[in-house]
Structures are given as structure tokens and as C-alpha cells.
Amino acid sequence: MKLARDGIQLSFDIAGAGPPEFLFVHGLGGDRTHFAPQMEYFARQGRVLIAELRGHGESDKPQQAYSIEGFAEDLVWLCNRRQITRPVIVGQSMGGNMALEIAARHPDFPAGLVLLDSGVLFPASAGTVFAGYLEGLRRPDFADEARKIVADSCLPTDTCRAHVEQTFLATPQHVLVSTFESLFPWDVHRARECAKACRIPVLYIEAAHRLADLDRFAALCPQLVTAKAVGSGHFLSLEVPEQINPMIDRFISRYVRRPG
Predict the structure, then answer these.
(1) How far apart are the first and last CA of the chain?
(2) Does some domain include residue 260?
(3) Which of 4, 10, 148, 191 is deepest in the core (most CB within 10 A)?
(4) pLDDT above 70: percentage of residues in the chain
């Protein structure tokens, strides 16, 4: 399905009936297939919308600046158009940053947040690595850098790597570069403010490589609940849905208030 916002077609899938309601948001270089296991699982429980960010998947890919804030507003607009009014937002990687941005901008919109290995409050060691990635993505042979990013993000045992590489390579260079350019400024200027402003339940599920300073996160957001997936790299919604889906279930049953 698609809806046009200011002339830009935004692609999404929707299924099930709620409440509860869910909004699933993929990360950089992803598309809606990154949450296919969750669509199948959670559509049996409630209403599920899986969005494809502008610049990704079957959404339009205009030449423009891409940012966490811009993506977040697209997502809220899309949910409003489809009458998704109080969702649990589940964001993988950069999708979790958008979830936190939405909670800060629209505090009455989400019921809860689930961040899957999101780069929120990056550890100091990430700066040099990410600067190298950005430099590589700006080159004419950016596809080689995209492959390297996927390889670095996966464990050798991850079976989802080939699929993730395919979706990264389907994302245009201008989208990858502009979005990547927005990540560190958002982390420096917005992450702390958004975490501090968040008042709803938050679950952070970590993969093998640490991408967030969870101690700082918890100090700013005391209601934060943390967990760790076993034997998975960064794309854990695809790699270990048998772990992720029950953890989301448990989080909702224990911490998220149901409507009514």
C-alpha cells in the first residue's frame, strides 16, 4: 500500500485488528521485509503497520536531506492517516532513534517503545568507525562500503546477512549518505533531550555489538528496561525472531497499559 505526503509516496503494510496497535520501523538500508517475522506474529494479536521510510523499499526516493526528525514526522502522519492512534513503536537500529524522537515530539502518541540495537547515546568508540563508513559511502564505489557495513554488523553465523545486503544495495547512495550524515548530529543534539523527555515504557534489546551507552540511557530514562539477544548481530528482528517476539510480548504484558 502507498499514501502520498506532499507528493511523496510512502509505502507500508498493514494487517490485523487492534488494540493493541504496533508500528514497526526498519533502520538505514532496510525495508518492510526486515520485520516480516513480526508482521506474521503480531498481526494475530492486534493491528500492525510496517512502514517503509522515504528513500527505502518501495517508497519514493527524492533528492533531499534525510533526517531522524523528518522520518519521525512521516511515520506519525502515516499512522494518523491509517487511524493508528496509540501504538507500541518497535524500531530496529535507526528506527529506534525515530521512535524516541516521536515519543519526545508527540508524548501522547505512543503507548511504549521497543528499541532493537539502536544507536542511541553512542559509545565514544563509535565515532571513528562511523566516520569511516560515511567517507566510504560518499565514494563512487559506495556499494563496497555498504557491503562492509552489513558484514561488520553481522555475526559470522547470521543467516540474514545476504538478505540485508540486498536491501542495503537497493537503497540509493544519496539516501544512505544523507541519512548517515544526520545520525551523529542527532545523537549529539537530540538523543539526550529525547531520552529525558520520554515518559512511557521503553525496552532496549541489545545484540552482540554495543551501540548504546545503556547506563547513560537509564539515568535519563529511569523506566528503561534492557535485554540482550543471544547469538545475533545487528539485524536481530530477522535473525532471532523466536527470541525478540516473546520479549516484546512480555514487555507489553508487564509494562504497557492497554487502552481502557
Answers:
(1) 30
(2) no
(3) 191
(4) 99
